Amino acid sequence: MSLAERTDELKRLIQAFEAEAGKFHPLALSLLYVTQSGRSFNRSFAKPNHAIPLWQYYGAIKNHTGAVELARNLRNSDLKWGVRGAELTCFGVLEGEGCELFLRMAQRAGTLFDEKEANTLKSKMTQEIQDAELARHAPAKPALVSNDNPLALWLNYLLFHLSLTNPGRERAQRIDPDPFTLSLLALERLFSQRSIEKVDKSVQPLSSLRFKVAMSFPGERRQYVSATVSALRPHLPPDSIFYDYDYQAQLAKPNLDILLQDIYRNRTDLVVIFLCEEYTEKQWCGLEWRAIRDLIKQKKDDQIMFVRFDDAPVDGVLSLDGYVDARVHTPEKLAEFIQQRVQTRVE
Question: Which residues contact 285 (CB under 8 A, 6 or more apart)?
């Protein structure tokens, strides 16, 4: 069953990881690289802990002798720890309280991918090494492998998610944020995208677009916002909803604050603001809120739509301001309300 058919399971996993991320388990994920001459760090591991090979680069097979040696090493290896004689092995190491719980949850998350998706993910994790080795050893064949274990699949997906959202961070020795929080972010992306392909959906440059709707929200509410966007898309033209995951590659640039304020203030017909306690705490929400408050100052009320998750006070919002209550209405119903507001502006 592909990701597109795993809606209920994705929702269950998001709820489970959200609950555990909120407990701030002292759990860390590190990458340990092992070569024939040693390993990338020699410190002692915190307890409890668990290590698992994620991928392995055996080396370049240049001739028949090399192929025979690889076959012999395969026969004589404990594959739980990889193939003997490999030039480079990458282990994922989990350390700290919550380790056993995370192992069970990650094993389940790793079963989200069908065979095709798992193979695509495994090839992505080793593609960079393969390309470099082909260029260095052509016409030799680099021998690489990724672990099929669901836990390894999930850890590899977390690293792939980081490579898309925070390029370079996936190569760090210690991976941040903590595994529960990172899993929650990755699951929210899977729920939104239903794909392990690149994040950026749009082929149009942001500088040339004007949006009918823009979403302003804290990350803690992404699941609800993502479902709203999914319900709204069929009723609006392509590239008419500003939702960050659709343009993430284009948002990875300097002076992002100027770009975002321009989008919310000057290039959107209707800004939907998801108000809650978390909204007041986030720096990027605060930056977007400045542009939105300027719209209020200019009495452009028809360009603003409030949605509330709780009754937390937000500077500039009064008790007499109208809003849609997300505690009462589903994302699908909110999408209908947004569509009505868009149509009202057109008329």
Answer: 216, 217, 218, 278, 279
* SS3 letters across 45-86: CCCCEEEEEEEEEEEEECCHHHHHHHHHHHHCCCHHHCCCCC
Is the pTM above the cut of 0.70? Answer: no
Residue 45: CB partners within 8 Å, gap ≥ 6? 51, 93, 95
Residue 130 has pLDDT above 70, yes or no: no
pLDDT in tens, 143-156: 788 889 999 999 99
Q: Is the pLDDT of residue 199 over 60?
A: no
Other CB atoms within a 10 A radius of the CB of residue 307 amount to 24
**229 vs 242: CA distance, rounded Å:** 9
For 183-196, the pLDDT digits (tens) are 998 898 888 777 77
For the chain, state the CA radius of gyration.
Answer: 24
Name the residue among 221, 212, 208 with its Cα closest to residue 241: 212
Judge whether 121 and 156 are in contact, CB under 8 Å: yes
Whether omega before 139 lies within 30 degrees of 0, making that bond cis, reads yes
**pLDDT (0 to 100) of residue 204:** 76
The structure tokens listed for 79 are 């594959």
List domains and CATH numbers for the chain: 3-193 (no CATH), 206-346 (3.40.50.10140)
Within 8 A by CB and 6+ apart from 200, the residues are 246, 247, 248, 249, 250
> Do 209 and 185 contact (CB within 8 A), yes or no?
no
